[in-house]
């Protein structure tokens, strides 16, 4: 009673030889199949190299192209030879030349001896698994595939399309329910004999010759027909990438492979000297006959697939330039943009810094320079405050800033006169939270006391810019979370609005919002607006300030500490 | 892409190849050891001039990585670099006195050599001050990468130029022959790069880093391009267009993913900013053989006189490739 090893080899013959010797030395009969694409010279040299190994045979050669029937034919012949030549074989283990045994042969033999009736083969119905790559699952079994997917892709695709169009459907031989799974199995003598000597074998073979990737479905389907005890899993550890290609293991996977407790792993990089050296001389001995546990190492391979298909949101780099991220985000994390607040309140930034846990910047897109928090010249990631550099690619400036500070919420002030292109980027970014007090730009003008002619022109200019901004922010395509108040509305109940902002940005833990920021003195502001009107410049963005009405913000009572009840 | 445009690109590629053929005559073989090259070998192509100081470490770095053979064009060196390279067992050397500028900064020469010797091989193009870093480069040789790229059917691999600089004036600590330049220049900018697409060739156009921040802050458009595609499974029908920034056919420039995921990529650590810069800049300025009439070198020569310090508070100190991948400068893609 032992396990026989079938090896399908097409490359890296020195490694295949090493592994074949290892199995043979452990007392396992070995049957080797060499792809008939391999030149006769190489084949003979390989045969010669292994000629001194007792209990090793070569089986009839087939042409093995990925996804073709050859692989199945090779497995059939090799397994048949194994059963005929070595009557002591009770299980046959199908492996490839790039498989590497991880545990001692004895442990595999014992493991199988404990389960003499069990067939280890991954086998699932197509409807229940999402494995298939390329969109062909059930159709693998109902269409014909005479063309090579690798070499004749256009013909392959065209023929599939034609059959779909003509609604051609092959009849699946009676009694068979298509199943699929990993091609690396370990079957009992009884099951294999039943499959290979089935009176209907010629019917089965003829059918599967035109199925796509039959090596993943031939034994997987037929085993359901004949076996009593199926363990639907492969004893060979093998991980697949997003295109269905197997991952390769390298020297640095040594610990990972040890932890898997699997008997055999594939594929191993042929130059992974340390893996071959380690596992073939000191295999992973496990005292307590552990079950293989490939799940332990799933995480890093699942992460690789995720990185390749989704990537890190908000990251823009040399090998990732999404048109837009999948969640509608342009940037890596939520951030807040505040317009008008620093005009209306004295030292608003330090107030917000105290109230929240965010990094609060000044106007990052100010015309003269990027006003980073703390008035720094550079910021995370060595971002420069130079306005020319920033405006050369403002979108990159924004995405860089948010990526560089991931983990720390960012908040910055904005104004109508700031870099014009950037608002559009932010408006379409689901991470942006934009709050605007419209018309607040008039407050610094009101306070400035410069010549009224200049003020009038500036006001007209700013009003025009902000009107444009607001219409952009109100368009139906906007993804950002937008809040717009007129200045008149805002100063009616500033604390309620501020509370929303602070909650947005993220309240500093343990900090209660007790103190309102100090509003600038608006005494005379409505008169100022009236004067603008009298000059023919009608300021409309700040809402209604009637001439006699004292804006509430200037009411001394609202300057007192203000308690918000939660 | 329209048929007309495809055809236009095809013509352009043919013209580049023809040009390479013509410029090939300028190269005089010094030592040709190309019979040593075996199928599957990874080859490195480089142009150099008066880099004797840098060559020992350069060759060691790439030998350790698993590069099998070096193809070097020596452009009229006067510092003994020619003799040094001639004595190396894995270097094939050509020399020329012809104009660097008129060979389009060495591109024509290397296109010619790659066409002759690179067909079917993975070819890496690196200047003596560029050091290739790729995912797992500390535990897997370059052959592991190229084998994996072959398995995935990928023909080209991107590696952005990452400018490295010392803390303090660049003239403060002189570089010694054979020394790892990382011992001196181990700082870099982690997150100030600007990326746009070049629609003509389909490659990315990347600018930024310390050079944009200091020398080109007020004329960012002229800041040097940092995008590179230095590793390609070469075919004699391929041609680099401008430096290793882009090549034809255009499909080779698709080293980035546009639908959200990350493709695998590496970096070229650029060790330009050592004490050797000032001398180099003056020399190159005098020869007038560099890109954009040496505007870049004029800026460096001017800068180097004042012993510039590129370091800032937010400079990042180099640790290893994993750090670069976490920072988002390169990616493992689906290589695990």
Please, could you describe this protein's structure?
The complex is a heterodimer of chains A (566) and B (336). By secondary structure, chain A is α/β, with parallel strands linked by helices. Chain A has two domains: 308 residues, Spore Coat Polysaccharide Biosynthesis Protein SpsA, Chain A, CATH 3.90.550; 225 residues, Rossmann fold (3-Layer(aba) Sandwich). Chain A is built from 22 helices and 21 strands. Chain A has a five-stranded mixed beta sheet, sandwiched between helices. Chain A has a five-stranded parallel beta sheet with strand order 15-18-13-19-20, with helices on both faces. In chain A, helix 3 crosses helix 7 and helix 7 crosses helix 9. The longest helix of chain A is centred in the C-terminal third of the chain and has 22 residues. The C terminus of chain A is likely disordered. Chain B is globular and about 50 Å long. By secondary structure, chain B is of the alpha/beta class. Chain B has one domain. A seven-stranded mixed beta sheet of chain B has the order 1-4-3-2-5-12-7, with helices on both faces. In chain B, helix 7 crosses helix 8. Chains A and B meet through helix 12, strand 16, strand 17, helix 15 and helix 16 of A and helix 5, strand 10, strand 11 and helix 6 of B.
């Amino acid at each position: 009673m032992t396990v026989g090893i079938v090896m399908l080899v097409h490359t890296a013959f020195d490694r295949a030889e090493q592994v074949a010797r290892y199995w043979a030395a452990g007392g396992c009969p070995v049957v080797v199949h060499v792809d008939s694409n391999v030149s006769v010279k190489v084949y003979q040299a390989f045969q010669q190299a292994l000629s001194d190994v007792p209990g090793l045979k070569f089986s009839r050669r087939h042409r093995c192209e990925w996804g073709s029937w050859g692989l199945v034919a090779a497995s059939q012949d090799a397994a048949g030879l194994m059963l005929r030549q070595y009557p002591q074989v009770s299980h046959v283990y199908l492996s490839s030349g790039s498989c590497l045994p991880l545990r001692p042969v004895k442990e595999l033999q014992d493991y199988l001896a404990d389960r003499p009736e069990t067939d280890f083969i991954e086998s699932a119905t197509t409807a229940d698994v999402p494995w298939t790559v390329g969109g062909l699952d059930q159709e693998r079994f109902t269409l014909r595939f005479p063309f090579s997917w690798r070499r004749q892709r256009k013909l392959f695709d065209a023929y599939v399309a034609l059959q779909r169009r003509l609604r051609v459907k092959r009849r699946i031989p009676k009694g068979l329910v298509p199943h699929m799974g990993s091609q690396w199995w370990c079957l009992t003598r009884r099951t294999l004999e039943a499959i290979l000597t089935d009176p209907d074998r010629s019917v089965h073979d003829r059918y599967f010759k035109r199925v796509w990737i039959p090596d993943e479905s031939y034994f997987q389907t037929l085993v359901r027909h004949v076996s009593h005890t199926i363990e639907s899993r492969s004893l060979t550890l093998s991980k697949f990438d997003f295109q269905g290609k197997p991952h390769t293991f390298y020297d640095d996977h040594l610990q990972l492979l040890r932890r898997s407790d699997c008997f055999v792993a594939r594929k191993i990089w042929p130059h992974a000297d340390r893996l071959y050296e380690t596992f073939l001389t000191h295999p992973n001995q496990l005292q307590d006959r552990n079950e293989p546990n490939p799940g332990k190492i799933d995480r890093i391979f699942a992460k690789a697939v995720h990185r390749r298909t989704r990537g890190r949101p908000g990251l823009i780099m040399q090998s990732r330039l999404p048109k837009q991220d999948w969640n509608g985000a342009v940037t890596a994390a939520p951030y807040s943009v505040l317009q008008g607040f620093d005009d209306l309140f004295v030292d608003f930034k330090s107030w917000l810094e105290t109230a929240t846990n965010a990094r609060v910047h000044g106007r990052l897109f100010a015309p003269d320079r990027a006003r980073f928090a703390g008035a720094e010249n550079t910021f995370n990631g060595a971002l420069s405050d130079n306005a020319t550099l920033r405006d050369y690619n403002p979108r990159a400036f924004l995405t860089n800033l948010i990526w560089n500070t991931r983990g720390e919420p960012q908040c910055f002030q904005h104004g109508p006169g700031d870099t014009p292109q950037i608002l559009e980027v932010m408006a379409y970014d689901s991470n942006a939270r934009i709050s605007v007090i419209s018309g607040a730009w008039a407050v610094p003008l009101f306070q400035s006391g410069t010549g009224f002619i200049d003020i009038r022109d500036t006001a007209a200019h700013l009003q025009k810019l902000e009107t444009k901004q607001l219409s952009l922010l109100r368009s139906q395509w906007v993804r950002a979370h937008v809040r717009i108040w007129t200045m008149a509305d805002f100063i009616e109940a500033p604390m309620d609005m501020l509370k929303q902002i602070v909650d947005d940005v993220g309240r500093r833990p343990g900090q209660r919002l007790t103190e309102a920021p100090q509003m600038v003195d608006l005494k005379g502001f409505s008169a100022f607006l009236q004067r603008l009107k009298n000059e023919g410049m009608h300021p409309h963005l700040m809402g209604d300030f009637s001439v006699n009405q004292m804006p509430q913000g200037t009411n001394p009572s609202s300057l007192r500490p203000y308690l918000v009840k939660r | 892409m329209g048929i007309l445009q495809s055809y236009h690109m095809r013509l352009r590629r043919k013209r580049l190849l023809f040009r390479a053929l013509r410029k090939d005559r300028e190269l005089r073989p010094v030592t040709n050891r190309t019979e040593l090259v075996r199928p599957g070998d990874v080859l490195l192509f480089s142009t150099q001039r008066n880099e004797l100081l840098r060559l020992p470490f350069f060759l060691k770095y790439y030998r350790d990585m698993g590069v099998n053979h070096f193809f070097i064009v020596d452009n009229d060196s006067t510092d003994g670099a020619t003799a040094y390279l001639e004595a190396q067992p894995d270097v094939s050397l050509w020399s020329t006195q012809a104009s660097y500028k008129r060979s389009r900064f060495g591109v024509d020469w290397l296109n010619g050599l790659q066409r002759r010797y690179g067909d079917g091989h993975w070819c890496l193009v690196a200047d003596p001050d560029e050091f290739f870093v790729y995912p797992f480069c500390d535990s897997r040789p370059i052959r592991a990468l190229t084998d994996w790229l072959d398995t995935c059917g990928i023909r080209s691999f991107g590696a952005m130029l990452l400018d490295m600089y010392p803390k303090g004036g660049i003239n403060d600590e002189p570089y010694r022959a054979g020394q790892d330049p990382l011992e001196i220049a181990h700082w870099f900018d982690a997150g100030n790069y600007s990326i746009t697409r070049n629609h003509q060739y389909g490659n990315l156009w990347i600018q930024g880093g310390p050079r944009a921040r200091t020398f080109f802050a007020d004329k960012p458009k002229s800041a040097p391009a940092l995008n590179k595609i230095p590793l390609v499974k070469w075919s004699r029908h391929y041609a680099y267009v401008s430096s290793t920034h882009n090549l034809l056919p255009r499909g080779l420039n698709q080293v980035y993913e546009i639908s959200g995921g990350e493709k695998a990529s590496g970096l070229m650590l650029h060790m330009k900013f050592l004490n050797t810069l000032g001398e180099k800049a003056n020399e190159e300025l005098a020869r007038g053989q560099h890109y954009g009439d040496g505007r870049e070198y004029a800026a460096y020569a001017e800068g180097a006189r004042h012993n510039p310090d590129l370091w800032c508070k937010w400079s990042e100190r180099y640790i290893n490739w994993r750090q670069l991948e976490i920072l988002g400068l390169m990616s493992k893609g689906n290589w695990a």
